[in-house]
Design goal:
The chain is mostly helical. It contains twelve helices and no strands. The two termini are 23 Å apart.
Amino acid sequence: MKPQLALAYFGVVLIWTTTPLAIKWSSIGVSYVFGATGRMSIGLACLLVLLLLRRKGLPCHRLALRTYLAVSMQIYASMLITYWSARFVPSGWISVIFGLGPFMTAFMAAAYLKERSLGWRKLAAYSLGAFGLAVMFSSARELHPMAIQGTLGILLATFIHAASAVWVKQIDAKLPSVQQITGGLLISVPLYWLTWLILDDGALPTQIQPQTLYAIVYLGVVATTLGFALYYYVLGQLPATDVAMMNLMTPVLSLLLGYLANREPITMKTVVGTSLIMAALALHQRADRASLPVRIAKSKNRRAKKTGAANAAPVSNPT
């Protein structure tokens, strides 16, 4: 991985580690819809200013418009469900459950991107991850009357997030990341405002606590503007399944951050469930590395066929 790409990759990991807790704080004393709408509105304003300063426009060809729609799935549908669910579960749980994203991504990438993302090792990892999720569900019963619904909501948001990533890769419009996220926000922000008008009657909060305000601004400026831009930059450089593996690092860090900064409980069931999911992700990643030479060889063969290299020797299978 090139240094620039590595910095972007770990920048996303750091931002994703702090985002769940910031989402939790951004709804203190205000509705979750207001917090999400404020965040996305600030993020869109920052990105439009950035494009203006760089004198860049938004492409409007067919593939670009499809990409914006795919990105908006993640920004609006996945994030709105996440904000709703975050009220009922500890912030660290958001990152843990989103750690199941690689499994969902792998199945969809195999079906739609023709990536080699299935195999007996990965199927074993999926089973282990599902068992870890079951333990988390069992732990949810002890936290909050709505914790199970919140956990299901995060699970649904994770699925939508994975579907959005695979769709963007399938379209392959070769758009810069800033344009992708700006186009997605131009679709999503009006939907957020409409949702706010419908669910909250457009009512502004009488007062906003400093903690809430700082969280909304952080999410809008850093998590949305910088975080999404880095994420879609990385997504454009790496296979969808490899991008999803950044979820391997964020869950444990988010759990610790929630415990230290927000006094969120870490029960034994939470530790066991998280450990099982992390073990499943590690097994998944190991399977990916083991199959990488084969994928590279097949990719070279496909490129050779496309260029009409009829006399090119086939690349041998290193395994």
